[in-house]
Automatic annotation (TrEMBL):
It holds the Pfam family YfhO. This is YfhO family protein. It comes from Hymenobacter amundsenii. Keywords: Membrane, Transmembrane, Transmembrane helix. Signal peptide: none annotated. It comes from the Bacteria. The chain crosses the membrane at residues 20-41, 107-127, 133-154, 161-177, 203-223, 235-254, 362-380, 387-404, 424-445, 486-507, 539-556, 833-853.
Length: 868
């Protein structure tokens, strides 16, 4: 008598079960390596604007870390001084940094990002119960979405990492609710930990919106099916996992939350608006916390622009794109007498984009094949899953429209928790680029298991990750059902392409930049003809890929193709489609041999300034100062490049620094800006002019590191305080808001008192002073209460804010040592909590994995649930 074998005993050997996954990972490594071959094989780097700016802004902190082994929690290299929390701060207690190195195989940054996106997409496919080959298709669809490569070209590496880990979060979510709650909880905790660690909270926010939609849909079905206790039990487990994930990054989150109160993401203290620029209306200052609407919604996706999900060049692609020598613009420029040697350079940066966004690096394109399969998924996928993914996609699109659907989006901005902290609402389309490929790959798996008479081999049908392709013998009715819906999806998608083509026939292809182009004599008719040509060309391109993908599925249902061949062909079409569009925005032209050191070769002006060996002074680069961090590489800069500078410093830029810079230009006097003097701006770098390089001009009015004042001008509120700076002599008078800092005299005997900076580091400043009488010292350092502590002769003393942004300190007569140390309690506490949470997370994940594998469910559950 034969003893029956259990499913676990009947499983194939471990190496055989692991082999498909290892081959998939190897395939992803090859794809990432081929795409970024110039980095791996030609010793080149990717020219990333934001990374160059990051290297400039973080240089002082990096140097301090290398020299001391400590973290520079403050830097004077940007905006006269700010915390490094969102620039370059490491948290040793966060042990997930070691996991990241393992997951990315320690590959170079951008190669690692793409590889990671593919691997996490693959894990999500397996979590859905799909076979390795179909999971690879899903990984390609998720990893090569155009936005993923576009943001890498721009240097948004943290955003890219957060997106790469997002599928891992969804994988845990699905496994927790549809399969094994313990395994799912462990996977969810791991994915969310790594996603939060990537430090792009806007992406995490959008991801959690998709998770929230999932939860609402699951709650509805749990209520209807009387499964509420089980639903809440699984939700509670995921809630604990989320707390642990947030705990691992607690240091980063806590310091960011603390800083946000003082940054432009926080509440403005001013009640009056800054002077309006010529020709612009004056907007009221936002009284609440967060960004103002105009700034937050400046990058809103056009309603018609949503067509780029299917047709990438529907609105011309990026703001500047390369046109061919056969384009209408090329012909017009040649006819206008542009020399052939210059023509190529002109054609490389043509204003092809004609949408409403002020600037764009490229469209969000999920792929024609993915779009077709997404439509098919809406017809054949299980209702619970398609409701979730369709709702998430629609929410994503509506949020991305921003000011183009202000009735809804202003309401969300004003009342949805945390939403007003983020700008560039077009980024909300990342929800769609996650949801659409998931539904697409589920549709593919549903078709591939639906052919009549198809029965998988026994070894395959018992394998958990291949359950979706195993299928049960199906009847002709199911095949007819699938054929009908494949045709319907083809008609719908092709119909959308046709509508796009018709829209191109009536559009004027006019761009907001055309008015400027016309003034320079640019051939507008030619560029508009090329914009129309780009649209028509991509309509036919997308239509071709849709037809090919539909043809593969049709031949499969006709029993002309095998499961593996059909999946491979759809995957190949998806890859070729997305790869081709990605290469428009990140190609060989984006790579360079220039190293970081070569990017920051000091100019003659820099070299001149660096001859000054004083401990600390500031530099203003007058060429676009507040969107430039390259100056910060060598100097303590008045300007910088950062999306979350201090709110008070932004006020100072808008209301005092910018108007005073105009005075410098008009009067040709480097000392004509009192605010720059009080910030110790010793050097101004003039913009390069024709035949004349940038020059460094010494400002004789710079007040130095600290000085005694004779008078205090009391004011009652922040508006009076900043307004007073316009007529202030900061060398003799300090403006103080006495409603916050009472008790000061209005006059001091400053004559004869001296003070000098004797020691400098980012986190600590030491001064030696001799006061003839009790006095008030103003320091050319930015006031930041949550961290900076003043010490007089080693004893802590209270300091105050003067001149809207600077520190001040009453000093008794005599000779003293004054120290300022940046000692934020948030960092120490946050780092400790991160360490404790990291250890707890590791223990909890190991326990969950052990329990999960001791209580494994039957392998067919997921495929039946998601693909039925």
């Amino acid at each position: 008598m034969t003893t029956p074998t259990s499913p676990r005993q009947a499983e194939a050997p471990l190496w055989r079960r692991m082999l498909p996954h290892l081959l998939a990972v190897l395939f992803f490594l090859v794809l990432a390596s081929v795409y970024f071959a110039p980095i791996l094989f030609d010793d080149k780097t990717l020219a990333q604007h934001d990374i160059v700016q990051f290297n400039g802004g973080s240089h002082e902190a990096a140097q301090f870390r290398e020299a001391t082994g400590e973290e520079a929690l403050w830097t004077n290299s940007m905006f006269s001084g700010m915390p490094t929390y969102l620039i370059s701060t490491r948290f040793p207690g966060d042990l997930s940094q070691y996991l990241h190195k393992v997951f990315t195989l320690d590959l170079p940054a951008v190669v690692a990002n793409l590889f990671l996106a593919l691997v996490c997409g693959y894990v999500l496919g397996l979590a859905l119960g799909l076979s390795p080959v179909v999971s690879v298709v899903g990984a390609v669809a998720l990893g090569f979405t155009s936005y993923n490569l576009i943001i890498l070209a721009a240097g948004h590496n943290t955003k890219s990492l957060a997106l790469a880990y997002a599928p891992l979060v969804l994988a845990g979510l699905l496994v927790a609710f549809r399969r094994n709650k313990w395994l799912g909880t462990a996977l969810f905790a791991l994915g969310l930990t790594m996603n939060i660690r990537s430090n792009h909270l806007q992406i995490t926010y959008y991801l959690l919106l998709l998770v929230l939609v999932f939860g609402v849909v699951e709650l509805f079905f749990a209520f209807r099916e009387k499964r509420l206790p089980d639903f809440f039990a699984r939700t509670a487990l995921l809630g604990v996992a989320a707390l642990l994930a947030a705990g691992v990054s607690f240091g980063r989150l806590y310091t960011t939350l603390e800083y946000s109160k003082y940054s432009i993401r926080g509440k403005s203290e001013l009640k009056t608006a800054p002077p309006a620029a010529p020709g612009q209306s004056q907007d009221p200052v936002e009284s609440g916390s967060g960004l103002n609407r105009e700034y937050a919604f400046s990058y809103s996706y056009g309603i018609g622009e949503t067509a780029t999900l299917l047709i990438p060049n529907f609105y011309g692609g990026a703001s500047q794109m390369k046109l061919s020598d056969n384009s209408e613009t090329a012909k017009a420029l040649t006819a206008a007498g542009v020399p052939p040697a210059q023509l190529t350079d002109y054609l490389a940066q043509m204003p092809t984009y004609w949408g409403d966004q002020p600037i764009t690096s490229g469209p969000v394109y999920v792929g024609a094949v993915v779009f077709f399969l997404f439509v098919l998924g809406l017809l054949v996928a299980d209702r619970r899953t398609r409701i979730w993914l369709l709702t998430g996609t629609l929410l994503s699109i509506v949020l991305a429209w921003g000011k183009n659907l202000e009735t809804f989006n202003y309401l969300v901005f004003d009342y949805f928790p945390g939403y007003n902290k983020f700008r560039a609402v077009s980024m909300a389309l990342v929800i769609a680029q996650l949801a659409m490929p998931v539904l697409a790959v589920l549709a593919l798996a549903r078709v591939l298991r639906g052919r009549p008479g198809f029965t998988a081999p026994a070894a395959v049908s018992t394998h958990p990750s291949l359950a979706a392709l195993a299928g049960r013998p199906t009847d002709d009715a199911d095949t007819a059902y699938l054929k009908k819906h494949v045709l319907r999806a083809l008609v719908i998608t092709a119909g959308l392409c046709a509508l796009a083509f018709l829209a191109g026939l009536v559009a004027d292809f006019a761009s907001p930049v055309d008015a400027q182009l016309q003034q320079s004599g640019f051939p507008l008719d030619a560029i508009r003809a090329d914009r129309a040509s780009l649209l028509r060309s991509d309509v036919f391109r997308s239509l071709l890929f849709v037809a090919l993908a539909a043809g593969v599925l049709w031949f499969f249902l006709q029993r002309k193709l095998s499961v593996a061949m059909s999946a491979a062909l759809v995957g190949l079409l998806t890859l070729v489609d997305l790869w081709g569009v990605d290469k428009r925005y990140l190609n060989d032209g984006n790579f360079q041999r220039e190293t970081v050191a070569e990017q920051f070769v000091p100019s003659p002006a820099d070299q001149q300034i660096l001859q000054d060996k004083d401990l600390s002074y500031r530099v203003l680069n007058m060429a676009n100062p507040f969107n430039d961090a390259q100056t910060s590489y060598y100097h303590k800069s008045i300007g910088g490049y950062h999306g979350a500078k201090l709110r008070r410093y932004q006020d100072l830029i808008e209301r005092q620094i910018s108007p005073q810079l105009q005075r410098i230009y008009s009067e040709n006097r480097p000392d004509a800006a009192p605010v720059l003097n009080m910030l110790n701006t010793r050097y101004l770098i003039t913009p390069p002019a024709e035949k004349q390089p940038a020059q460094a001009i010494r400002n004789p009015g710079a007040l130095g590191n600290a000085w005694y004042v004779s008078n205090v001008q009391p004011v009652q509120n922040p508006d009076q305080e900043i307004q007073a700076l316009g007529t202030l002599d900061p060398g003799t008078t300090a403006v103080v808001d006495v409603s916050k800092f009472p008790g000061l005299k209005t006059e001091y005997a400053a004559e004869g008192s001296t003070i000098a900076l004797t020691k400098y580091s980012p986190n600590a400043l030491t001064y030696r002073t001799t006061a003839v009488q009790d006095g008030l010292v103003v320091f050319s350092e930015i006031y930041y209460a949550d961290g900076w502590q003043a010490y007089l002769d080693g004893k802590p003393v209270a300091h105050l804010r003067a001149d809207y942004v600077l520190r001040a300190l009453p000093v008794p007569r005599g000779t003293h040592t004054i120290e300022f140390k940046f000692e934020p309690t948030q960092y120490a506490l946050g780092n400790t909590v991160s360490l404790v949470a990291s250890v707890l997370l590791i223990i909890a994940m190991l326990a969950a994995l052990y329990y999960a594998f001791q209580h494994r469910p039957t392998p067919h559950t997921v495929s039946d649930t998601l693909l039925a």
